[in-house]
Amino acid sequence: MDPKKLCLLKKENFGPSSDLFTLAKSDQSPFEFVGGQYVILNVGMDMVENKPIKRAYSILSSDMHTDSFQICVKRLANGKASQILKDLEEGSEIDYSGPWGRFAGNPEWPSEGTTLLFATDTGITALLGLLQSKKFAARKDTIAFWLKTESEDFIPELKIHSFLDQSFLIEGVTIPSIGSSERVDISLSVLNKILNNHKTISNAFLSGDGEIIRAIQAELIRSSTPETRIGTEAFFNTGRVSSPGTMKV
């Protein structure tokens, strides 16, 4: 069976360390997805390891539009995929699979009640995809937090708010650099403040640093959020997620 293909419609510099890619299916058919899902791109072969270079990218554009979609790619000096993608020319084709993400695609999630969207670092892309989705369009009981380092330049905050309705606010919190032993404790203190203001969190989606995600997930479960109502998408520090109500890239 021939691989599915995407066509690169547009590539633009988005932040000091990132590029925004607008993609569409090569056969021009609609790209159906649900906000919060992701695609896996096969950008070429690793000639040293003799295997395909595949990477998962959250879809950050709205699922209300199916003629094309957008992903944001952080340029990494040692990133095999990002180094190939940054040189990709408009009109080029890319093999892909997806969209993936059964949890985000579950039509019964989120249930009624307060929903917490909690992202760290580059996990902001999953959060943006959810906030722009059809299922969140009419919800008023959603709170969103983005924990990022002081030097984070993946997506500038002004551009983040350009994606969203002006009435919606993502609260930003500064945390130490990746690798710091203080990151988890600070993240838990942020969650405790949230729980003090919102006694019950009925649903949650956590994305970004897997070490933080696991700690936040455990605390939410202890505070009575149903485990099956908590979705996770670990971008790094993936570790092992055993909950039947979670998924990860």
TrEMBL record:
<dbReference type="GO" id="GO:0050660">
    <property type="term" value="F:flavin adenine dinucleotide binding"/>
</dbReference>
<keyword id="KW-0285">Flavoprotein</keyword>
<dbReference type="GO" id="GO:0016491">
    <property type="term" value="F:oxidoreductase activity"/>
</dbReference>
<keyword id="KW-0001">2Fe-2S</keyword>
<dbReference type="GO" id="GO:0051537">
    <property type="term" value="F:2 iron, 2 sulfur cluster binding"/>
</dbReference>
<dbReference type="InterPro" id="IPR017938">
    <property type="entry name" value="Riboflavin_synthase-like_b-brl"/>
</dbReference>
<keyword id="KW-0274">FAD</keyword>
<dbReference type="Pfam" id="PF00970">
    <property type="entry name" value="FAD_binding_6"/>
</dbReference>
<feature type="domain" description="FAD-binding FR-type">
    <location>
        <begin position="1"/>
        <end position="106"/>
    </location>
</feature>
<keyword id="KW-0408">Iron</keyword>
<keyword id="KW-0560">Oxidoreductase</keyword>
<dbReference type="InterPro" id="IPR050415">
    <property type="entry name" value="MRET"/>
</dbReference>
<dbReference type="GO" id="GO:0046872">
    <property type="term" value="F:metal ion binding"/>
</dbReference>
<keyword id="KW-0479">Metal-binding</keyword>
<keyword id="KW-0411">Iron-sulfur</keyword>
<protein>
    <submittedName>
        <fullName>FAD-dependent oxidoreductase</fullName>
    </submittedName>
</protein>
<dbReference type="InterPro" id="IPR008333">
    <property type="entry name" value="Cbr1-like_FAD-bd_dom"/>
</dbReference>
<dbReference type="InterPro" id="IPR017927">
    <property type="entry name" value="FAD-bd_FR_type"/>
</dbReference>
